[in-house]
Amino acid sequence: GEVAGNRVCIESLTYWARWKDADGRLHRADTECRDESNARRWLSDRIGEVERERLGIVTPADRRVAGHSKAKLSEHLDAFIDSMAASGRAECHRKTTRRCIERVAEAKAWRCLADFDRSGMEGWLAERARSGASARSRNAHLVAIRSLLNWAVRVDRLRINQLIGIPHASERADR
Questions:
Q1: Helix 73-86 with 91-108: angle, nearest 10 deg
Q2: pTM of structure
Q3: Taking the CA of residue 115 as centre, how many other CA atoms within 13 Å lie in the half-sphere pointing to its CB?
Q4: Which of 46, 122, 127, 130 counts the highest number of beta carbons within 10 A?
Q5: Angle formed by the axes of helices 91-108 and 118-130, to 10°?
Q6: For 84-143, how does the pLDDT look when each residue is reduced to its tens digit (9 = 90+)?
């Protein structure tokens, strides 16, 4: 690199940006933009986020949730299963939970946490009931999905669990 005073200048293929967050901490990040106008737009977006947080329009928790809501479901599921392992859940329980979540997510084409919705889950449960699935099986799937979403709320990956209040099927009535 080229020495300029007390700095070494290294030419990068992409633009880098510096900005201060709502708490006044300085951040520096690669914009991954090769075009200056795109890099300026990227920085403008970061500054807009800081201003919304400073004005109280958005909270830090809202920003964290927004960052997670469009991430792939598989990333969240891996972290959830790791969390279950860390809390001492048995391997067979973790595998069953993963399988239940993946089954429903695949059937409903849910690819990220933002895709989960109450009506979709209720529709899937009703469809499974019509096809002869037992109440116990339907409940296992509901509990697995609900557990994932409860965990996501606890770790600031979701604001609310959309599936709260969906009743369990009566296992006594459906032997």
A1: 160
A2: 0.67
A3: 15
A4: 46
A5: 100
A6: 999 999 999 999 999 999 999 999 999 988 889 999 999 999 999 999 999 999 999 999
